[in-house]
From TrEMBL:
It comes from Polaromonas eurypsychrophila. It is a multi-pass membrane protein. GO terms for cellular component: plasma membrane. It is an enzyme of class 2 (transferase). This is histidine kinase. It comes from the Bacteria. The chain crosses the membrane at residues 26-46, 172-194. Coiled coil: none annotated. InterPro entries: 2C_sensor_his_kinase (IPR050980), HAMP_dom (IPR003660), HATPase_C_sf (IPR036890), HATPase_dom (IPR003594), His_kinase_dom (IPR005467), HisK_dim/P_dom (IPR003661), HisK_dim/P_sf (IPR036097), RisS_PPD (IPR032408). It is found in: Cell membrane. Its EC number is 2.7.13.3. Residues 254-458 form the Histidine kinase domain.
Amino acid sequence: MQGTSPAILETAPAPLEMRPRVGLNLFWRTFFFLALLLIGCIVAWLQTFRALEFEPRAVQSAQQLASLVNLSRAALKYSDSITRVWLIKTLADEEGVRISPREPRDKYELFVNDPFGERIGDELTTRMGKGTVVAKSVNGVPGVWVGFTIDGDSYWLLTDPSRLGPMQGGTWLIWLITAAILSLLGAALIARLINRPLKQLSFAASRMRDGDFDASLLDEQVATSEIREVNIGFNRMAEQLSKIEEDRVIMLAGISHDLRTPLARLRLETEMSVADAEARAHMAADISQLDAIIDKFLDYARPDPPQLSPLSLNAIIDAAVYAVAEYTDMRVNVTLPGPITVLADEVELSRVIANLLENARRYGKTPETGIAMVDIAAKERDQWVLIKVRDHGTGVAPHALSNLTKPFFRGDAARTAATGAGLGLAIVEKTLHRMGGVFALANTGSGGLAAHIKLRRG
């Protein structure tokens, strides 16, 4: 198959590195467990408090009401009619207690709407006799109504329900909701304080993974001793890795520089001293290959971060395809839906495409024709650009796929024609990671190897 279409990217299974990972954030795990613990403690405390406070408060409220009724009844019983009227008016004005005759046609609602009210009613009946009635409303007027008799005459005593304290379950519910909200806010603050050092450590590790050792330093003056020790150890490790990386770059650059001088002399001497044209051509090719291998080492050891900017993917692919147009053993087919812009470094992305094409040319030739048929397709998805470079060769053994991007690793097919340093795909992966992209390799269903690239849109 020499042609492809954007549908190739839809039907091919996405590599694991490109699939979104779903997981519970450590902050929310910590917050959830702290909140669960605090709310459980609040509920347990509330139930314990109510159990210990319920009975004494009910008895105390009943005693207060009984004392108020008994005093009012005694004062009214031993006073004449004129004094009784004055006394009733004084109780209403100064004590907020209203006494009125109880009529047979009065409609009242008993004060037994909750366990607390029932307990008060039982206590009042015990203290004042069986004829005592405790109601929460009489003739539609709410309050605490107590019915009693004086010398055979029935009366109602009305007092403010606040004398009994909070009786309704809504009060407890308000306190519970308030305590729960405060507990959740406290749990969120504690979870944030606990997870902040871990978040900083994760960010520093990701920066160090991308080669930015200077930005990965952690605070060594934090108050928590364990976090301080971890930060100090991490910073020392980053310093050592930075030094090792610098030494490696200097060593590779020095070796490459020192090798290029004798290679240049060898090329000159070959051209001047070897008479056989065929032998001279082979020796020149070997020297060129050694020079290309040195370039690979320099590319892999390159420490400078890439300069990202919006680039035309179409132009970069066209330039890479134009560079291999003279090869007789390679055919490249490009299918792009339209102009596509990516956020990348122009030189680095051009090197990536060139390495993938060279890898396909060397190891992805079709067995029947001996020609490398390469398909390049791309499409935009959300804030990303998906690029696929696919050959129609024999593919790679499944167990070797994860090793292809390791430095100096070559598969069985590569070893039979070992003309490189085994750094091409390693350079591709490292370069894409430095540009904030993703790289993965996968065998295609119809044969051949497919390279999947994921870059941010420009």
